[in-house]
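(Fold this chain)
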Amino acid sequence: MTLGQRIQELRKKANLSQSELAAKIDISYPQMSRYEIKEVQPPADVLKRLADVFGVSIDYIVNGSLEQKAQDSLDDAELLSQFKEVEQMDEDDRGTVKKLIDAFITKRKVQKLAQ
């Protein structure tokens, strides 16, 4: 999901039109439209006002949630689902899974170096 799409989604959840949101954050309607549709990056002060209106962090507006980041960067739906399951485990079990993954990654790196 892009920054513009996140702004649009938050605006719709807040039941605001583009012009209403523009008025709340003290910018013009055309500029608000550019942020949502043309993917123009708002300056820091506008991001702050948007975050305040929506009750979210600037980081969320710019980058999305951790889950969205994971979905955007992982093509393997099964792997993403497995990571979600691991996240629900207790700390000891998560640590064990992380060690196993780390060991496998290290093994692959060593194999590549040996080639």
User: Anything to note?
Assistant: The chain has a mean pLDDT of 87. The first helix runs from residue 3 to 13. Helices lie at 3-13, 18-24, 29-37, 44-54, 58-63, 66-73, 77-87, 91-114. Residues 11 and 21 are 7 Å apart (CA to CA).
